[in-house]
Amino acid sequence: MGTDHIGLLKRRALLSASAGAALLGVVRPGPARANQSHRIVAAPGQASLTGPRRRATDVWAYGGSVPGPTLHLRQGEPASIVVENRLDDDTTVHWHGIRLPIGMDGVPGISQPPIRPGESFVYEFTPPDAGTFWYHPHANALQQLGRGLAGALIVEERSPVAVDRELLWTIMDWRLKSDGQIAAGFGNRMEAAMAGRIGNTVTINGVVPPDERVRAGERVRLRLLNAALARIMALRFEGHRPVVVAVDGQPCDPHEPKDGRLLLGPAMRIDIVLDMQGDPGRRYRVVDDYDEDLEYSLVHLAYDAAAPVRPHPLEAPIRLPRNPLPEPDLGAAERRELVLQGGMMGGGGMMGMGRAAWAINGASMTGDGHAGMPPLTTLMLGRSYVLGLRNDTAWPHPIHLHGHSFRVLSRNGVPVPFNQWADTVFVEPRQTVDVAFVADNPGDWMVHCHVTDHQTAGLMAVLRVGKGGKG
Is residue 114 within 8 Å of 91, Cβ to Cβ? Predict the structure, then answer.
């Protein structure tokens, strides 16, 4: 079989060979699978990352598996998730991309006390948006995420698109020693000031991926999640034409990516629709060529030898229903500049300043943050803002904003097409990206780079949203 699809659809379509009956077997995955109450235990465990014939790797896991169990919720319905900490380390859980109350955001000292060893915390929120999200620690994040604490969270659309199957690829990378165990050295200062901790082993859904078995003629919705600490990926599906239908869980205008490459920085998600138009019996590479000198095959799409399940691609629409995001008023929006500074070769002079290697507007927040951290800026509740994210460093940064999703407006002044919203935006070196949002969620919200070494070494700040904000 192919990749271990944790928590994915098992249903098969009753497909007809005739074009007239092509839609009879199409699966419309619905919210009946969702469960609004969950319990997750964070604890040491083991995982067969490199295959059953090799020694299992000691990991930290949610629910005994890496990645953790895929949680399915229903849009607009209250959810309750109990997190029990059986680690010898304080922890929290951040529900990445979910627009929820500040007390449920999972940042220790900022939005909640840490969950001490042996204690539990109940997260309660109502997800307003359908889409592909995920969960991970925001306490000792570099080591906890790097040892395996991550999982996908899918909020089901009320009216999903017609596909034959859904797949989820939760992609992680690991730095393993020759004996298959996780290498020490988290928080290396040199790495923190450069590209971060990049592993030597890449897994999909917790295993070094075997072939992904597919059938000619089927339509697949593939949810891609980059849960790595620092690895940036650009995925190319050889012989196929993926169509992007959502970014960071938020629907966009369906479109083929530029040059066929899907850029996924850490924490970013992309939903694609793939019509399997390859030849029966053939294998096609899925390649990561973000670094062209280090190109590698992530996985192969392996076609069954059987005849295609339908003679032509489906003609059913693939546009996802829009989420209830507030539209920013660009004419009245106020502008805030966030300048990303520091790092090796960045000219920022940050390397001699204790733990800090990075800064935003000259200020550094290291580690997990702490109670009483002054906000970088204060935003008035209900007002529209444009954030100009200017990268004055030599390294790329996927910048994540908690508690909100934003419209991606432009890159270096060039408009971004296809009506794209996100919660994590990729900012290239020497690039300025403008994003816009309505500050409609009160609280102290983190904004930070999701290359986790960068985050913990200073590239993190607090944006305060409140009624008394200075416009």
Answer: yes
**What is the C-alpha separation between 226 and 170, in angstroms, rounded?**
6
The conformational region for residue 64 under phi > 0 = left, psi -120 to 50 = alpha, else beta, is left
Q: Which element (helix H / strand E) includes 388?
A: strand 384-391
Let me know if the fold of 25-156 is the same as that of 334-466: yes
Contact 93, 123 (CB under 8 A): yes
Q: Tell whether domain 165-303 is in CATH 3.40.50.300.
A: no
Give residue limits of the domains in the chain: 25-156, 165-303, 334-466
The DSSP bridge pattern shows strands 421-422 and 250-255 to be unpaired
The CATH class for the domain spanning 334-466 reads mainly beta
DSSP state of 260: G
* Pairing label, strands 79-85, 94-96: unpaired
Answer whether CATH 2.60.40.420 is correct for domain 25-156: yes
Per-residue pLDDT tens for 405-440? Answer: 999 999 999 999 999 999 999 999 999 999 999 999
CA atoms of 350 and 346, how far apart (whole Å)? 9
Q: How far apart are CA 253 and CA 131, in angstroms?
A: 15
**Beta bridge pairs of residue 38:** 81
pTM over 0.85: yes
